[in-house]
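Sequence in, structure out.
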Amino acid sequence: MLKKSKLHYLAYILAFIFWTTGKAQHITRRDYIKKYAPLAVKQMQAHRIPASITLAQGILESNNGNSRLAVQGNNHFGIKCHSWEGKKIYEDDDKKNECFRDYKSVLESFVDHSLFLKKYDRYNFLFSYSIKDYKSWAKGLKTAGYATNSKYPDLLIKLIEENELYKYDNQYDKDDFVALKRTIYLHPNKIKYVIAERLETYTIIAKELNIKTWQLQKYNDSKNNNKFNSSRIVFIQPKRNKCKKRIHLTNKNETLYDISQTYGLKLKKLQNRNPSLGSEKLKNGLKIILR
């Protein structure tokens, strides 16, 4: 049996080890900015989202990268599951035990944050703002419903100004944007895709990727080659016959085509599984059979 003095010494050593380990793992705000500013700038070049906004949201949503979601799930932006088919992590938020996206890496979290803002129509108006107008972006994110906190814009603006994050917005270059916007991503259903910008066409994308226009149209179940009204996913490989998820509950004004693009499912397969539905906009809350 250990003597009291030895027990006290052992307890001290263990406490010191736990304290130093925790201290080493804790990331300061300065370290967070230094480490992740390059990722924010790259996303700005690829998707035209101010690096200052991305960094400020990352700092706020992840507590400088120290939150449980960030440490265990690489989720730096508090993005919930929605139609997510990847790994999931659960955390109390507005409600208890809510579902959040669990990423393989921090890079994947930064990329998904950009795609999230470009996927939903409610964020479209943000891209009409100047890349250096971080105040309008901060207020717009709240207007679009990114966060429920009424002080969300003020918190972002304060972070940007106190830490001079706006200086990273000066690294935006239109030429770099053109070069980087054809980044190829991998859909959760294991299909490669790119992001098409507003006013582009399948022909423009096909020329840049050195493939045929008709191939892109076939991959995306489309015969239309008109200019896109908003940014969107364009698959550069055939979509799949099935996906992991079985049922999808429709959002207001969704179509079967929208759902086929969301899940990377061939439109014909989706129509065969839901024969009573046509190409019209669907009511909210309908059950769509995915597989």
